[in-house]
Structure formats: structure tokens, C-alpha cells
Amino acid sequence: QVQLVESGGGLVQPGGSLRLSCVGSGFTFSRSDISWYRQAPGSDRELVAFISSVGVGGSTNYADSVKGRATISRDDAKNTVYLQMNMLKPEDTGVYYCYAPTLLFWGQGTQVTVSS
């Protein structure tokens, strides 16, 4: 049974940081590309960051809105992909989802709220 479980969300003040985690199981995690998406209230889900499998180079890509503030990384020994977000802004608020594109599978999401 494929699972993606996100954690690490919460309430943070503007300018603060969070590290989100996505733990996968039920599939060969090390061979899977993984993406982070987010969805703000009333908005479409948008891609935040992407990391390919190490086998194809472990390349990364970021939305323009988070470039320079976000870092995606993976630890295949732990079946985990991380999203480090720094200098958070109120517009970063939303539900953050982990996605395995080759499996067309979504996690359940974790809420991030940036507010003073």
C-alpha cells in the first residue's frame, strides 16, 4: 500500500522557518521523483519544489515564488524528502502536499500558517 505522510507544518511568524518532511512507503522510494505542492484557500494547488531520484541526478527545481528561500532534499535511507522553508511570508500560508508523480499519488497534506 503506497503511502506519503507529511509532517512539520504549523503556525510560524513572518520571517521564520519550517522544515517539512514527507515519508514514503509501499514503493521504491529511492527511484521516485518527489514534488511538494501547496494550496492556499480559494486557490489552485501549485508546485513549490521538485527533486528527482538520485539515479537520474537528484536534480531540483523551484517555483519562482520560493527560489532562494526553499531547499528540497532527500534521504533515501529514511525514505524521506524534506522541504526547508526560510524567510516565510504570509503568502506561503496553505496546505503543503507531497506528491509522487510517477505513481500519481498524493499525501494528505500538512497545514502551514504564516502569521503574526
Any key phrases for this structure?
four-stranded antiparallel β-sheet; mainly beta; 49% strand; 0% helix; 116 residues; 11 strands
How would you summarize the topology of this molecule?
Elements: E1 3-7, E2 10-12, E3 18-25, E4 34-39, E5 46-51, E6 60-62, E7 70-75, E8 80-85, E9 94-100, E10 105-106, E11 110-114
Parallel strand pairs: 2-11
Antiparallel strand pairs: 1-3, 3-8, 4-5, 4-9, 5-6, 7-8, 9-10, 9-11
How would you portray this structure in words?
- It is a single chain.
- This protein is mostly beta strands.
- The chain is 0% helix and 49% strand.
- It is built from no helices and eleven strands.
- The strands form two sheets. Strands 2, 4, 5, 6, 9, 10 and 11 form a seven-stranded mixed β-sheet that branches. Strands 1-3-8-7 form a four-stranded antiparallel β-sheet, with no helix packed on it.
- A hairpin with a 4-residue loop joins strand 9 and strand 10.
- The termini are far apart.
- The model has no long low-confidence stretch (mean pLDDT 97).
Order of helices and strands: EEEEEEEEEEE
Low-confidence stretches at least 5 residues in length (pLDDT < 50)? none
Overall SS class: mainly beta
**Spatial shape:** globular
β-strand number: 11
Q: Report the sheet-strand fraction.
A: over 45%
Note the main sheet: 7 strands, mixed
Rounded to the nearest angstrom, the distance between the terminal CA atoms is 40 Å
Average per-residue pLDDT, rounded, comes to 97
Q: Measured on Cα atoms, how large is the radius of gyration?
A: 13 Å
**Helical amount among residues, as a percent range?**
under 10%
Question: How is the quaternary structure best described?
Answer: single chain
Count of separate DSSP helical elements: 0
